[in-house]
Amino acid sequence: MTNDDTTTTNDTEDVRDLVAQLVFGSLAAQTVRAAVRLRVMELIGDKERSAAEVAADAGARTQPMTRLLRALASLGLLREHTAGSFSLTPAGATLDPERPGSLTSLVRMFTEPTMLRAWEHLDDSVRTGDVAFDTIFGKDFFSHLKEFPDLSAEFNAAMSQASRATAAVLPHAFDFGRFTTVTDVGGGDGTLLSAVLREHPALTGVVHDTEEGLAQAPTTLERQGLTARCSLAAGDFFQSVPGGADVYLLKSIVHDWSDEQAVTILTHCREALPPAGRVLIVEPVLPEVVDAETAGLTYLTDLNMMVNVGGRERTRADFEEVCRRAGLALTSVTPLEQAEPFCLIEATAA
């Protein structure tokens, strides 16, 4: 066999491995879901524990638990030291709900059957442009959440966990000190705005969301000692946003909605914006051409927007267009290092 033949064979194997890895991705996700539901990481904690011990504490059988733990070790979430004895890796530790920086709610939400049902109909959404979730459940995603308080709370917690990296970076990425009041539109439990207010003591804030979205916000503000500097405003950003702020912040909001709906939300921000105010959008910004080396998961979140809520991820040109239609001028796009793939998109009154 020549060197060229060897290279061709190796390349073929790499291609097959890639496809197999992609196809088995859903199985890996369900493995992680099972680990969270069985509290595996919490039960192992900081110790090295045997599969038998974990199984007993989880109310499971030893042999199936051993198989689960070994699968988790193969995924890089556990380390098997000797046969049947395991400890957490740093990645596995993020699935312990008792640890700071836990991603447990994020895992629960994005492996939740309600969230995954629409993905079974991705091809239908591609053919028709319809939102698969709406077709399956007879209502939109956020209306569905209103009917299930536990699921709504899990969604809020997942969004809070997804905002932590941005919350660590955003307060230093923009000169908030020039302004007086920030309204976080669709701000959920207040995780992001709390980080901004902590770093800028002269600022006051408003978290604006639906009643369901704000359900956990009082706890967040009280924990951060911000109840005197931050108020809550329940409402519908399709109808209006609270006036009186000079910065309107929207993280992971615009991508949930169609262009028409995005323009409506941004128009309400524009209507409330004082002459020297700013609208800050925090979202991924797609390049004009896909770069597989740097793409990450953003194109999968784009498809998730398609099937579950009818939104989309956008390029800079897309953001410029929705801003223009809302009476705003996009002035800058700044990648948020340490919070990839998010960017800070700044807009002013046009």
What would your notes on this structure say?
With 350 residues, the protein is α/β, with parallel strands linked by helices. It contains 18 helices and eleven strands. Strands 4, 5, 6, 7, 8, 9, 10 and 11 form an eight-stranded mixed beta sheet that branches. A hairpin with a 6-residue loop joins strand 10 (328-335) and strand 11. Helix 7 (104-110) crosses helix 12 (149-162). The radius of gyration is 22 Å and the shape is globular. The model has no long low-confidence stretch (mean pLDDT 94). Residues 119-328 form the O-methyltransferase C-terminal domain. InterPro entries: COMT-like, COMT_C, COMT_dimerisation, SAM-dependent_MTases_sf, WH-like_DNA-bd_sf, WH_DNA-bd_sf. Pfam families: Dimerisation (PF08100), Methyltransf_2 (PF00891).
Biggest beta-sheet profile: 8 strands, mixed
Which secondary-structure class do the elements indicate?
alpha/beta
General form: globular
First-last Cα distance: 66 Å
Q: Can you tell me the residue ranges where pLDDT is under 50 for at least 5 consecutive residues?
A: none
